[in-house]
Amino acid sequence: MMMDNNLKKIFSQVTPGTAFREGLDNILDAGTGALVVLDANGPLGDLIDGGFELNCRFTPQRLHELSKMDGAIILDGTAGQIKYANVHLQPDKSFKTNESGTRHRTAQRVARQTDNLVIAISERRNRITLYKGDFRYKVKNLSDIMTEGSQAMKTFERYKHVLDRALQNITLLEFDKMVTLSEVVTVLQRFEMLVRIRVEVEHSIIELGSEGKFLEIQLEELFKGVLKEEENFIRDYINLGEEGFGATEVKERLLGLGDLELLESENIAGALGYGRSAATFDMELDTKGYRILNKITRITRKDTEKIIGKYGVLSKILELTEEELVGIRGISMFKARSIKKGMKRLKTTAEWEK
């Protein structure tokens, strides 16, 4: 699939609620079929034969009426102006196509040759198909997209609950100094699975356009802070044996894993910089404390860096008195008390929620 930004740009032009989508749906409902090109990359030149030049403002009604002729309709890149109608397109046949119908074969070749967005509407199949470069997508109807989006959101909610429970469990283990690599790998798997499910929900939201606003708000609320917490979690447990190896590199390794590879614990351990043998998973680890300290609202990220920079791991930080915390430059007595109370509150909350 194309990069997300390109995908969003494509769907933003054809989402329900836009004037362009209304015009496409009108053609589909009338059963006339059409071939529409959004010419965003300059004149089509030798590809155009015949037809007539219009250069008039786009309206859904005009698009529908022009589709009753056999030729292609050429719009500008924003679908704000109709440039040509009843055009015969002649793409280079060296650009391969796996489509069967004449209209769809032409659409795929033009998209590959010009990298413009090309839309083929089939009266026989009652379907809208998008082409851009090598990208091809069959547009679903609104009710199907809504159903898929709702199902994806329910899956997302379930996995968010699973992640929250895993984080509660490892928080207690961190306070009791009983974390092993096995628990760390499990939590990181949960983070990455949630991130991937989020992408599926986002695709549905993009396709829904204005109809997907409620799902978008729901997703934003549930996903708030997840990426930052994952970053802090990775920083807590990353094995810094490699020079220049940080949280960004771990994320890149994780992104490079396929969905099935993500289920293999050895791959997660390897991404963090640990060995892949079974014995390694019983290794006891001491969290540095980035995730825990960043939950205390009274201290800044800079304060967190100073504390961990001096003491290294959470187990040592937990043993510090308020006076010892004040000895760190920039940590006032107010902040020291907030840290001690915050740590106690986080442990109590984790115990109560479990």
State mean pLDDT (0 to 100 scale): 91
CATH C-level label of the largest domain: Mainly Alpha
Number of strands: 8
Q: What is the number of helices?
A: 16
DSSP strand (E) fraction? 5-15%
Describe the main β-sheet briefly: 8 strands, mixed
Helical content stands at 55-70%
Q: What would you call the structural class? A: alpha+beta
Gross morphology: elongated
| Straight-line N-to-C gap | 40 Å
Provide the CATH superfamily of the largest domain. DNA integrity scanning linker region
Q: Which CATH architecture of the largest domain is right?
A: Up-down Bundle
SSE string: HHEEEHEEHEEEHHHHHHHHHHHH
Radius of gyration: 28 Å
Number of domains: 3
Here the CATH topology of the largest domain equals Ferritin
**Low-confidence parts lasting 5 or more residues at pLDDT below 50?**
none
Report on the structure:
- This protein is α+β, with helices and mostly antiparallel strands and 354 residues long.
- It folds into three domains: 4-139, DNA integrity scanning protein, DisA, N-terminal domain (YojJ-like (1, 3-Layer(aba) Sandwich), CATH 3.40.1700.10; 141-287, Ferritin, CATH 1.20.1260.110; 288-354, 5' to 3' exonuclease, C-terminal subdomain (DNA polymerase, domain 1, Orthogonal Bundle).
- The protein has 16 helices and eight strands.
- The chain has helices at residues 4-14, 19-30, 60-66, 102-114, 142-175, 181-208, 213-223, 226-237, 247-255, 259-262, 265-272, 290-293, 301-311, 314-318, 322-326, 333-353, and strands at 34-39, 48-49, 52-57, 72-76, 81-89, 117-122, 127-132, 135-139.
- Strands 1, 2, 3, 4, 5, 6, 7 and 8 form an eight-stranded mixed β-sheet that branches.
- A hairpin with a 4-residue loop joins strand 6 (117-122) and strand 7 (127-132).
- Helix 6 (181-208) runs antiparallel to helix 7 and helix 8 (226-237) packs across helix 9.
- The longest helix has 34 residues, at 142-175.
- The model has no long low-confidence stretch (mean pLDDT 91).
